[in-house]
Amino acid sequence: MEYQAALHAPSHFFPVLLVKASPGQPSEIVEHLGTGFFLFPGVLITCWHCVADQPPPGCEYAIRVEESKGRFKAYFLEDIERDANGTDIATARCQYTPPQELELWTSDLLLGEELWAFGYPYPERQRKQDGTIHHVISGRLLRGYMTRHFLYDHPTLGRTDAYELDMRAPQGISGAALIRRDTCQVAGLIFGSADVETIEEFASVDTETGEREPEVRRIVSFALAYDTESLGKLRTSATNKLPLAEYIRTIKGT
Fold first, then answer.
1. How far is the C-alpha of 109 from the C-alpha of 164, rounded, in Å?
2. What is the pLDDT of residues 155-178, one digit of tens each?
3. Which CATH class name applies to 10-252?
4. Of the four listed, 26, 136, 147, 231, which is most buried by Cβ atoms within 10 Å?
């Protein structure tokens, strides 16, 4: 697909998982939590709400990387830290190096600009005959455009600079990078959705019975992403407490 032409998406965007970590045993998936990505080697970026809780005993947070067809490896997350600015963004140390680095876009998106995201929504749980649960987690490409740039009234974080997108934000896509069309440029990070009511049918009166029929409403959801500036200001120990955009310029000598 043309939207993935610039890179092989499954090698750059990963499911964030809670796994059972037993010495000498393959990691067992307990829960799928969201999506993560790398802007430089060794540091994963995702949503804070995906990794905010302390893992239960015997469990760890990890990403799953496909090393060959049908064969996966868990890379554990360490030093998980929330953005010092109080956003729903987090970093974690992770011993994985993507085959190609993504770029951080540093200008505001234009209204109507075409975008795409690759993440892991709609995970399935299948119960095997022995009673164990098999998690079916597959990547999906979403694409759309920026419908507005506005201040979103977040229910817990207050007013948040956000892009509203003409795409859905199903469970599991939180933490996905928002990519400009036909590039490797990350322009934001998906963190939630905004619900809007639409009128499916207007209220009416049955001409024969005289009974009033109420209007029918439907909920439409738009994905929300942290805007370019908010992502560029991300500060944790992984960025040496520098804003992300400044830290990347420092390590790349630009």
1. 11
2. 889 899 999 999 888 888 999 999
3. mainly beta
4. 231
Name the residue among 88, 103, 84 with its Cα closest to residue 37: 103
Q: How far is CA 99 from CA 41, 76, 253, in A?
A: 10, 18, 20
| pTM, 2 dp | 0.86
Domain boundaries, the chain: 10-252
Q: For tokens 């560029």, what's the residue?
A: 232
Rounded Cα gap, residues 17 and 174, in angstroms: 12
CB 245 within 8 A of CB 229: no
pLDDT of res. 194: 79
Look-up of token digits 């400044």: 246
Which pLDDT tens digit goes with each residue over 84-93? 999 999 999 9
Burial of 26 (0-12, 13-18, 19+ CB in 10 A): exposed
State the chain's mean pLDDT as an integer: 86
Cα–Cα distance between 150 and 209 in angstroms, integer?
Answer: 47
Tokens in use for 34? 């969201």
Query: What angle is formed at CA 244 by the lines to CA 89 and CA 5, rounded to 5 degrees?
Result: 85
Specify the pLDDT at position 81.
98
Give, in order, the Cα–Cα distances in Å from 180 to each of 6, 102, 250.
Answer: 11, 11, 23
| H helix and E strand count, the chain | 3, 18
| Contact indicator for 52, 63 with CB cutoff of 8 Å | no
Residue-wise pLDDT for 23-70, tens only, equals 666 788 899 999 999 999 999 999 999 999 999 999 999 999 987 777
Amino acid letter for position 254: T
